Amino acid sequence: MQILSFILILLHSFIISSMAMNSNNVIISWNKNSESDLSGYKIFRGEESGTYYDSVDIGNNTQFHWNNLTPNVTYYFAVTAYDKSGNESPFSDEVILFIDDDNGQIDTLDTSLNATISNAYNFPNPFINKSTLYFYLNTNQIISIDIYDDYQNLIIQLRKNMSFRRGGHLIEWDGKNKHGVPVNRGIYYCIISNKRVRAIIKLLAN
Q: Is the pLDDT of residue 133 over 80?
């Protein structure tokens, strides 16, 4: 069995009041399979890609309301289909979303080949003590930011699988390693990456 791509719909509150919509809830829906022996679907939720700690068997429905999601957490959703004999399909493509605690906005995050990281640089360069990293994302993405020395040793991980919105971003590095010790003079590399592409910045520490 094959699951088609998700369609993610925001769930508006059914209670009309002065409050904003309850954006901690979402509706996840998808296109129904065409197989005649289709029996139902299971939907899965996790906080890491491919690792799911929660699942619900929703029978032969093609949408599910997931309530009480926690703000500032990145959620990964996937679906499987099963037939009347109990055979279950592989996981569908994931839908990734992030709820912003500041404004309640729900962002879907792009892991496709269309997601790019561009205009990556740092300033000042060379730098003393600290430097600011800049990069631009064309879509909402899950991003990791790592600093390596000239021998490809990991110096520090500034961000790990964090949600970033479309647009330009500034991240400051204080010039220290993961133990809080200032790095030596030399060449360092900042790698800004999602699952598919990466951008590399060459940094010169004085």
A: yes
